[in-house]
């Protein structure tokens, strides 16, 4: 994300949930490509929890935007913190598919009954990113608890532990 995007006039989405699993188990869900695809609901290509690694998500195209979200892993502290850039859109689009240059930060903290999982998606420049901010605010509020549900299912079927 560029310096201009972190100055005033930007908004962020913050969601926090306590999940009944260890940070190590939640970390696996956040850093395993096929699990990311399942909890996020978008195909994920090339993800690895390695600083500098580039990867993509694919969603519905709009106008001149191909629907590809281009990301780069910026920070990795296993079982504690994961940060990646989130860039998408096209300059010719207004509303859905307009340019987006943001950061996604995941923070995991061990608590008495599991893990406090926090998400901050920051850098939405308003009014240009109004549509993305509105849609993603609602979306992340479903995704974060959905990670817990997915992990519970995976642990129950002994696929994840």
How do the helices and strands line up, and which of them pair or pack?
Layout: E1 10-19, H1 23-31, H2 33-40, E2 44-45, E3 54-58, E4 68-77, E5 81-88, E6 100-111, E7 114-125, H3 130-156
Antiparallel strand pairs: 1-7, 2-3, 3-4, 4-5, 5-6, 6-7
Helix pairs in contact: 1-2, 1-3, 2-3
Question: What Rg do the Cα atoms give?
Answer: 16 Å
User: What is the helix content?
Assistant: 25-40%
Give the helix tally: 3
Gap from first CA to last CA: 34 Å
Mean pLDDT: 92
Largest sheet: 7 strands, antiparallel
The low-confidence parts are: 1-7
Q: Report the strand count.
A: 7
What is the 3D shape?
globular
Order of helices and strands: EHHEEEEEEH
Strand arrangement, major sheet: 1-7-6-5-4-3-2
Sheet-strand content, in percent, reads: 35-45%
- The secondary structure category is alpha+beta
Write a brief structural summary.
This protein is an alpha+beta fold. It is 27% helix and 37% strand.
Structure keywords:
27% helix, 7-stranded antiparallel beta sheet, disordered N terminus, 37% strand, 3 helices, globular, alpha+beta
């Amino acid at each position: 994300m560029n310096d201009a995007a972190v100055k005033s006039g930007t908004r962020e989405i913050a969601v926090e949930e306590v999940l009944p699993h260890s940070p190590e188990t939640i970390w696996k869900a956040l850093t395993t490509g096929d699990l990311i695809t399942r909890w996020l609901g978008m195909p994920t290509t090339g993800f690895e929890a390695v600083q500098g690694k580039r990867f993509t998500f694919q969603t519905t195209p709009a106008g001149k935007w191909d629907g590809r979200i281009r990301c780069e892993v910026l920070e990795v502290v296993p079982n504690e913190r994961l940060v990646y850039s989130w860039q998408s859109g096209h300059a010719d689009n207004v509303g859905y598919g307009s340019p987006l240059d943001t950061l996604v930060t995941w923070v995991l903290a061990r608590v008495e009954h599991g893990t406090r999982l926090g998400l901050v998606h920051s850098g939405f420049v308003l009014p240009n990113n109004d549509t993305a901010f509105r849609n993603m605010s609602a979306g992340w509020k479903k995704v974060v608890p959905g990670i817990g549900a997915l992990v519970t299912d995976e642990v129950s079927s002994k696929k994840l532990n």
